[in-house]
């Protein structure tokens, strides 16, 4: 399995990204009821609560937001 990934960090990122599950009520709350600043804080709290990397969680949220129709394109502060 190690030969399928270019590096150890690539492998870890892949499996952590698969493990990240964002509930639809959370997604709706941050896009409907929160300002962009509040959204950032909520995402950081959610990442720390679950022990996930913030950058991977933001990428997952962007994908889900586009899928769910909350936005066509989104910019989250890094």
What are the main properties of this structure?
mainly alpha, 4 helices, 78 residues
Outline the structure in words.
This protein is an all-alpha fold and 78 residues long. 67% of the residues lie in helices and 0% in strands. It has 4 helices and no strands. The longest helix has 15 residues, at 36-50.
Oligomer: single chain
Largest sheet report: none
Total count of helical runs of at least 4 residues? 4
Q: Give the fraction of residues assigned to helices.
A: 55-70%
Order of SSEs, N→C? HHHH
Strand content: under 5%
Task: Give the strand tally.
Answer: 0
Radius of gyration: 14 Å
Flag low-confidence runs.
Answer: none
Mean residue pLDDT:
87
Q: Which structural class matches the secondary elements?
A: mainly alpha
Distance between the termini: 31 Å
Shape: globular
Concise synopsis of the structure shown:
The protein has 78 residues and is mainly α. The protein has four helices and no strands.
């Amino acid at each position: 399995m190690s030969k399928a990934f270019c590096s150890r960090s690539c492998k870890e990122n892949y499996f952590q990204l698969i493990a990240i599950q964002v509930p639809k009520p959370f997604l709706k709350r941050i896009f409907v009821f929160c300002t962009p600043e509040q959204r950032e804080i909520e995402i950081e709290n959610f990442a720390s609560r679950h022990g996930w990397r913030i950058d991977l969680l933001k990428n997952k949220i962007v994908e889900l937001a586009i899928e769910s129709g909350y936005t066509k394109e989104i910019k989250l502060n890094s």
